[in-house]
């Protein structure tokens, strides 16, 4: 972690500022803290492999004791969740390799890690909607913040997992976007592969957020809010994080949260649309059905955030997107843009299997499991079952640009801009 992060970090329990306890074991290089102990008025917390861990769950307290004892490598094993020597050996071999991919590192984390879900994330229906909303709203509020010079112009992705959507914020956030999640291994992967340059902070979404009031202009949570029990507190905290009375209006975005009035294969603890709206006491929310946003994206835009959907239509929606802000310019129609490469490269979508046929390559869509096909089968609206490309164009990948012959397949997400060493 960079020492400048102390400007916005706060203890989630007492609200006090945090600083490095230099009398205890620590490793730092200039303004980068690799391992150490952070202290406030009430607690001490560990920094493990550059990631501050600001909660008191058992793995965090064990890691804290190990860092204090000068055993940061063992603290990392605890936070990653490695339970046996064999697991530790497999992970450390991948972690120290200069050629290991995201996929290989995920596999080294074992079968209990959600690797399959994350590997195919960049073309999931939920992702393409979330990315469009994120790019549109964040570009508006962060751009206004930076142009006016009022406010931080910084973004935070809460419960952001392995950083796939955090990657969409890298070029929009004035300072490195913060990725906050309870699961250390996911953020470790994000910093290394998916969203290099972000600032990961390990914290508990069911507790107060460990950040100063008004530290951000844009706060989001996607595909996770239905699993948060303390929803009222969580929304209040998101509103607090963008509450800077001297800044341009910020925005809170909650994407792909399930609807209590419909069925979902991974339901969580959702509310009805009216229940979600009632959580917002200081910001006016607008709720969108995800199916209408999905239709906008599949059609190539525009993304219509001016729409107001009637209650009976929202009641039938399996998933909802909520945008809360006092800035009226957010609710507009947006053309869909291709985000910058974020240091990535263009590759064939991992959902496709390539078969060489002379000077042609046939690409076949293949889902990793029946469960995946059931939950994300809507991707067939833009992913073709088969595609044929010329061998020369195929062999130009991976590369920094899309070959002209593959431009249409890039539009249809058969060719994706993926982080380097992703699969």
Q: Regions with pLDDT < 50 over 5+ consecutive residues?
A: none
Q: Briefly note the CATH topology name of the largest domain.
A: Rossmann fold
Strand content: 15-25%
CATH architecture of the largest domain: 3-Layer(aba) Sandwich
Average of pLDDT: 94
Biggest β-sheet, characterized?
7 strands, mixed
Q: Would you write up a description of this structure?
A:
The structure is a single chain. The chain is an alpha+beta fold and 423 residues long. Helix content is 30%, strand content 20%. The chain has helices at residues 58-68, 72-80, 85-95, 102-108, 115-119, 125-148, 184-194, 231-241, 273-278, 290-298, 311-315, 370-376, 391-395, 407-411, and strands at 19-20, 27-29, 32-39, 44-48, 51-52, 155-158, 178-181, 199-202, 218-222, 251-258, 285-289, 303-304, 319-325, 333-334, 345-348, 352-357, 360-365, 386-390, 415-418. It has a seven-stranded mixed beta sheet with strand order 8-7-6-9-10-13-11, sandwiched between helices. Strands 1, 2, 3, 4 and 5 form a five-stranded antiparallel beta sheet that branches. Strands 16-17-18 form a three-stranded antiparallel beta sheet. Strand 7 (178-181), helix 7 (184-194) and strand 8 form a beta-alpha-beta unit. The longest helix has 24 residues, at 125-148.
In short:
This protein is α+β, with helices and mostly antiparallel strands and 423 residues long.
Quick tags:
single chain; 423 residues; alpha+beta; Rossmann fold; 3 domains; seven-stranded mixed sheet; 19 strands
């Amino acid at each position: 972690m960079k020492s400048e992060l102390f400007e916005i970090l706060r203890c989630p329990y007492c609200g006090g500022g945090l600083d490095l306890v230099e009398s205890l074991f620590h490793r730092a290089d200039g303004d980068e803290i690799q391992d150490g102990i952070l202290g406030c008025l009430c607690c001490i917390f560990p920094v493990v492999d550059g990631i501050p861990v600001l909660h008191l769950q058992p793995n965090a307290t064990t890691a804290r004791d190990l860092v204090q004892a000068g055993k940061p490598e063992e603290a990392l094993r605890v936070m990653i969740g490695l339970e046996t020597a064999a697991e530790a050996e497999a992970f450390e071999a991948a972690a120290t390799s200069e050629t290991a991919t995201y996929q290989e590192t995920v596999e080294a984390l074992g079968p209990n890690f959600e690797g399959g879900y994350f590997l195919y994330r960049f073309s999931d229906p939920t992702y393409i909607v979330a990315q469009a909303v994120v790019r549109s709203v964040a570009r508006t509020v962060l751009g206004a913040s930076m142009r006016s010079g009022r406010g931080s112009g910084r973004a935070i992705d809460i419960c952001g997992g392995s950083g796939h959507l955090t990657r969409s914020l890298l070029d929009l956030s004035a300072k490195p976007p913060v990725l906050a999640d309870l699961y250390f291994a996911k953020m470790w992967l994000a910093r290394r592969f998916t969203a290099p340059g972000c600032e990961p902070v390990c914290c508990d979404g069911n507790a107060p957020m460990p950040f100063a009031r008004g530290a951000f202009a844009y706060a989001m949570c996607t595909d996770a809010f239905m699993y948060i029990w303390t929803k009222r507190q969580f929304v209040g905290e998101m509103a607090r994080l963008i509450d800077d009375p001297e800044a341009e209006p910020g925005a809170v975005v909650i994407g792909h949260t399930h609807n209590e009035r419909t069925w979902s294969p991974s339901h969580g603890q959702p509310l009805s649309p009216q229940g979600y709206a009632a959580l917002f006491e200081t910001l006016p929310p607008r709720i969108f059905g995800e199916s209408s946003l999905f239709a906008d994206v599949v059609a190539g835009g525009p993304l219509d955030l001016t729409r107001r959907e009637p209650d009976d239509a929202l009641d039938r929606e399996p998933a909802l997107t909520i945008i809360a802000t006092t800035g009226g310019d957010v609710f507009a129609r947006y053309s869909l843009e291709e985000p910058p490469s974020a240091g990535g490269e263009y590759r064939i979508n991992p959902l496709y299997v390539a078969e060489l046929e002379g000077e042609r390559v046939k690409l076949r869509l293949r889902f990793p499991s029946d469960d995946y096909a059931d939950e994300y089968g809507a991707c067939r609206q833009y992913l073709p079952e088969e595609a044929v490309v010329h061998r020369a164009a195929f062999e130009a990948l991976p590369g920094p640009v899309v070959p002209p012959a593959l431009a249409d397949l890039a539009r249809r997400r058969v060719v994706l801009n993926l982080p380097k060493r992703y699969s």
